[in-house]
């Protein structure tokens, strides 16, 4: 009998990574299908010279330079002349300090000015007429394409089976029902979230949420198989995270609102970090916890979200300016606070995010090199002044020589990852669970040992996949803000995952950061959902389900395409 | 927007670097999986864990040394054989660090990269393992050591196969004594003394001093000395066991004249002596089949002249492992180059696939030149002929050897040593025997070595 049950547990273990792979594959395929094909939204026609400029994006730079979205080869046009952008209530043009100015129907523009179909926009000596795409693009180039996202309930059904399988395996291995409540709680929250998302928020897609749910669910079952209390915390944190996710999607819906709140959010980021320095208690060598009664919070996790806000929201029009001063100042403050807290892992994550945002905003590789040089110098100075910090990373690269001391966690991770094989030894059957911080810092090893290397690797690749997806939709976003925020958020998750995974397997020094969505840690879990909101917002479809009321009373400019048409059957696509 | 996309390439590259790292980790894990899973710290495999479905361990003749039946580890049916093979086979625990059941536990317990240790016992089956040792020779060694603490190491100096690596005190792995941790009788029972213990080598070290002298002092073979049993060297007395009279180089080794070799060591100096000792494996470990020996030590950096003189006859702080000593004899027999020992012949999995190990003879770096080796070969031969008598050993083997009686610091009886090799090419064995506090190399170590070699002769029918 015992042997029979052992076999069942083994078979369930074989099925787990396969099922996870299916879920992830469906989600990513659906994400790819959900991406709008490249087609012109409107066109600008230079009737005099008989040139048609298709307008593909929600925000388009117009200018003479090679990088312009609409490149006008005309000596009288500035390199970065103007920005043509689409908002929910129509199209606008903004002069970006051009020499010759921008004229709409003969009047010089000042600031953001609405433009309508048929308007004549004079840029240098070029006079461009705004036209509907279908009016000027030949019939034969049009092609009908309709791709529906995979029904969310299908994906969720798979995730339900996946969670039930892992929970069943844990029940068999543990010979008790400790995981039942957390697993059921998870399923209830998951389906509730889906129904609310679909019915109330009218979201058309649920792939990103599904991916995050699958990972969070794995983390919850994993926690539950070791410590029921941890699973409860994790579950509550996921709920908070989902609420944060929904709030953020709402908050960043209107890019202009984000711009308005930019300063407040900068101050919030610094306050969050400062608060843990002032009120925080030291745990595991870093002063980054605030204990509020029964709850302890890690404010630096939430500061990451605020930091992306600050970095990605810029008043610059499509990176036509290179002013990073304010952002560098905020970064410097944040890094300084993190160093005071001795939270080097988070400091490195902030710095990496800074590099990503700085480069995406300025396009200047020199800035990046300069920042890295400054950081290296800074680190050298710190290590000279406080040499004991280097001691913490002494084991890096030769953990086996420090197996009893600084390398203990890494060595155990390697031993037990090797013991787990591709499919693991079974939930709760592992031995890494007895090593300190196994459920957060070493969670990659814990998953490897108990659930198998395949699943552990899959999670790594999924986080990387989120980044690739973020990058893939950059030109389909409703604003550069979303593109940049998504790339920074994806980059942050990848970088954090890299620090976590490579730290415990001795490819990088062990810094003690969490693995997004999977590691035990309430703040981390909730913050990861918040970060995911940036990626979700970059998906055009996110806001396409809702009918938007015109926000201004004045005459509504002729909308070319309402956002809700995007996935509609009536939409005409033009393959370019 | 185009700019944003172009610039986001940077983040994409970062992601690819991340993927590359994940792949690197996987490859790393794959190549090191057995090594990492096998460390004694692995709780899946320590404390009798992991032996439920472990494979069979055979000796060179197919004798079963250990097997798992109904989830229990069953060792050889003969108690003496069990004790004799304890240190190389191991027991259920992983206390004996150099035993194959400790070092290869992941292999024999059914570990593989794909399933790790995660297979259910119903379908798990560990690999069978064949060792080079001969359980009969092991048994002879165990019996020859008797109630003494000590060790025997015998290996084939042409192929490297370890025929015997025995150590006492031992215990029965089938019935581990409950008082093993407290009873003095079992002190150091977890240690394979032939590998993991280093002792003062005494006169056996004269082989090293001779090698140094032969390669650096011109005409040393004609150097003579009239020994009256003691001489002041470096300010203090150097004593011989008895006055050796008029000796040349060859006789000095045969009769083991301390004064002669002490003077040689002093004449050659620290550097030459250290160089030669290090060439012969001192200050480093012997490693084979993932087993690492203790370190043999020759360190005269803080020695005064008298200390240096004593170091030339294997006293002072000189320490040597039996395995290293056997390798020196093997090098002498082999023209200066020692063949590395090994103990694992190979594994066979449940499908009958065999995985052979050590199919190629591995040699260590040369310990001495061919000329020096050949001269030492004759000298060790001459030593047995003139001093111990060829009949002290099984005569068919034509053994060449050198004994040692090493004084120990704790005022107990001296350690008895013998090392040597068989000239008979049908039985090319090199050996080292140590009997702690055995008092006389000739009196105690030679009979033990002889008994072990006789068992080997019986096995190979020479």
Write a concise keyword list for the protein shown above:
heterodimer; A: 576 residues; alpha+beta; six-stranded antiparallel sheet; five-stranded mixed sheet; 18 helices; 16 strands; 53% helix; disordered C terminus; B: 462 residues; Beta-lactamase; six-stranded mixed sheet; five-stranded antiparallel sheet; 18% strand
Strand order of the largest sheet of chain A: 2-1-11-10-7-8
Protein structure class of chain A:
alpha+beta
Looking at how many chains there are and whether they match, the oligomeric state comes to: heterodimer
Strand order of the biggest β-sheet of chain B: 3-2-1-4-13-14
Number of helices of chain B: 14
- What's the CATH topology label of the domain at 196-342 and 361-460 in chain B? Beta-lactamase
- Beta fraction of chain A: 5-15%
Total number of strands of chain A? 16
Classify the beta-strand content of chain B into a percent band. 15-25%
CATH architecture of the domain at 196-342 and 361-460 in chain B: 3-Layer(aba) Sandwich
The outline of chain B comes out as globular
CATH superfamily of the domain at 196-342 and 361-460 in chain B: DD-peptidase/beta-lactamase superfamily
Measured as a percent range, the helix fraction of chain B is: 25-40%
Distance between the termini of chain A: 64 Å
Number of strands of chain B: 17
State the helicity of chain A in percent bands: 40-55%
How far is the first residue's CA from the last residue's CA of chain B? 88 Å
Q: Name the pair of protein chains with the most residues at their interface, and give those residue counts.
A: A-B, 70 and 48 residues
């Amino acid at each position: 009998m015992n042997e029979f049950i052992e076999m069942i547990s083994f078979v369930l273990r074989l099925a787990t990574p396969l099922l996870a792979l299916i879920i992830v594959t469906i989600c990513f395929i659906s994400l790819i299908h959900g991406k709008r094909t490249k087609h012109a939204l409107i066109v600008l026609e230079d009737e005099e010279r008989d040139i048609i400029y298709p307008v593909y994006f929600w925000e388009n730079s117009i200018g003479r330079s090679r990088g312009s979205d609409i490149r006008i080869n005309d000596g009288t046009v500035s390199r970065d002349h103007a920005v043509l952008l689409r908002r929910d209530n129509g199209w606008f043009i903004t002069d970006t300090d051009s020499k010759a100015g921008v004229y709409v129907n003969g009047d010089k523009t000042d600031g953001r000015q609405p433009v309508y179909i048929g308007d004549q926009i004079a840029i240098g000596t070029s006079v461009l007429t705004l036209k509907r795409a279908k009016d000027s693009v030949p019939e034969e180039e049009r092609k009908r394409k309709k791709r529906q996202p995979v029904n969310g309930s299908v994906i969720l059904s798979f995730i339900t089976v996946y969670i039930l399988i892992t929970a069943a395996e844990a029940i068999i291995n543990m010979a008790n029902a400790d995981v039942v409540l957390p697993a059921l709680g998870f399923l209830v929250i998951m389906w509730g979230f889906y129904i609310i998302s679909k019915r109330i928020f009218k979201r058309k897609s649920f792939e990103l949420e599904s991916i995050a749910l699958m990972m969070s669910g794995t983390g919850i079952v994993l926690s539950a198989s070791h410590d029921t209390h941890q699973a409860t915390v994790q579950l509550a944190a996921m709920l908070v995270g989902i609420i944060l996710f929904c709030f953020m999607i709402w908050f960043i819906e209107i890019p202009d609102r984000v711009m308005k709140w930019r300063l407040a959010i900068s101050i919030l980021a610094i306050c969050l970090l400062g608060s843990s320095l002032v009120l925080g208690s030291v745990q595991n060598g870093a002063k980054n916890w605030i204990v509020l009664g029964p709850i302890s919070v890690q404010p630096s996790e939430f500061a990451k979200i605020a930091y992306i806000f600050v970095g990605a929201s810029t008043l610059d029009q499509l990176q036509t300016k290179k002013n990073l001063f304010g952002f560098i100042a905020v970064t410097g403050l944040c890094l300084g606070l993190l160093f005071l807290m001795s939270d080097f892992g988070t400091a490195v994550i902030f710095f990496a995010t800074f590099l990503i945002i700085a480069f995406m905003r300025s396009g200047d590789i020199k800035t990046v090199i300069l920042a890295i040089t400054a950081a290296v110098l800074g680190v050298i100075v710190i290590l000279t002044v406080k040499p004991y910090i280097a001691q913490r990373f002494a084991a890096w690269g030769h953990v086996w020589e420090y197996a009893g001391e600084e390398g203990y966690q890494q060595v155990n991770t390697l031993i037990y990852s090797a013991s787990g094989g591709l499919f693991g030894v079974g939930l709760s059957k592992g031995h890494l669970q007895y090593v300190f911080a196994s459920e957060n810092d070493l969670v990659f090893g814990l998953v490897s040992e108990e659930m198998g290397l395949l699943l552990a690797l899959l999670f790594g690749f999924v986080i990387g996949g989120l980044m690739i997806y973020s990058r893939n939709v950059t030109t389909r976003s409703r604003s550069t803000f979303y593109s940049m925020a998504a790339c920074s958020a994806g980059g942050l998750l990848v970088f954090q995952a890299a620090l976590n995974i490579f730290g415990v397997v001795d490819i990088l020094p062990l810094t003690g950061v969490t693995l997004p969505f999977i590691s035990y840690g309430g703040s981390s879990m909730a913050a990861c959902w918040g970060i995911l909101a940036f990626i979700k917002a970059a998906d055009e479809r996110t806001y396409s389900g809702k009918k938007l009321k015109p926000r201004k009373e004045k005459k509504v400019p002729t909308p070319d395409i309402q956002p809700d048409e995007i996935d509609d059957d009536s939409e005409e696509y033009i393959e370019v | 927007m185009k700019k944003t996309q172009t610039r986001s390439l940077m983040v994409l590259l970062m992601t690819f670097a991340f993927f590359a790292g994940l792949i690197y980790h996987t490859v790393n894990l794959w190549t090191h999986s057995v090594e990492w899973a096998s460390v004694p710290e692995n709780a899946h495999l320590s404390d009798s864990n992991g032996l439920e479905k472990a494979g069979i361990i055979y000796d060179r003749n197919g004798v079963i040394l250990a097997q798992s039946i109904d989830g229990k580890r069953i060792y050889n049916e003969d108690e003496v054989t069990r004790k004799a093979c304890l240190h190389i086979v191991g027991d259920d625990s992983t206390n004996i660090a150099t035993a194959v059941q400790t070092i290869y536990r992941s292999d024999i317990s059914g570990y593989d990269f794909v399933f790790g240790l995660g297979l259910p016992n119903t379908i798990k089956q560990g690999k069978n393992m064949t060792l080079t040792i001969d359980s009969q020779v092991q048994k002879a060694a165990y019996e020859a050591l008797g109630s003494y603490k000590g060790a025997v190491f015998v290996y084939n100096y042409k192929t490297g196969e370890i025929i015997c690596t025995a150590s006492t005190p031992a215990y029965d792995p089938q019935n581990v004594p409950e008082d093993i941790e407290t009873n003095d009788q079992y002190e150091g029972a977890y240690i394979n003394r032939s590998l993991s213990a280093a002792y003062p080598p005494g006169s056996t070290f004269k082989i090293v001093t001779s090698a140094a002298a032969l390669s650096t002092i011109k005409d040393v073979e004609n150097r003579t000395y009239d020994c009256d049993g003691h001489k002041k060297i470096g300010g203090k007395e150097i004593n011989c066991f008895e006055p050796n009279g008029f000796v040349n180089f060859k006789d000095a080794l045969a009769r083991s004249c301390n004064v002669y070799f002490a003077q040689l060591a002093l004449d050659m100096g620290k550097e030459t002596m250290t160089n030669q000792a290090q060439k012969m494996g001192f200050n480093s470990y012997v490693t084979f089949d993932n087993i690492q020996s203790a370190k043999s030590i020759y360190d005269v950096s803080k020695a005064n002249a008298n200390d240096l003189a004593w170091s030339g006859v294997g006293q002072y702080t000189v320490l040597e492992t039996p395995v290293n000593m056997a390798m020196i004899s093997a090098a002498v027999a082999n023209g200066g180059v020692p063949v590395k020992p090994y103990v694992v012949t190979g594994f066979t999995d449940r499908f009958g696939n065999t995985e052979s190990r050590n199919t190629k003879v591995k040699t260590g770096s040369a310990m001495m030149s061919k000329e020096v080796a050949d001269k030492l070969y004759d000298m060790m031969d001459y030593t047995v002929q003139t001093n111990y008598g060829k009949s002290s050993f099984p005569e068919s083997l034509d053994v060449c050897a050198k004994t040692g009686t090493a004084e120990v610091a704790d005022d107990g009886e001296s350690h008895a040593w013998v090392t040597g090799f068989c000239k008979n090419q049908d039985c090319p064995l090199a050996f080292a025997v140590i009997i702690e506090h055995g008092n006389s190399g000739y009196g105690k170590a030679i009979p033990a070595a002889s008994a072990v070699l006789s068992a080997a002769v019986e096995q190979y029918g020479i």
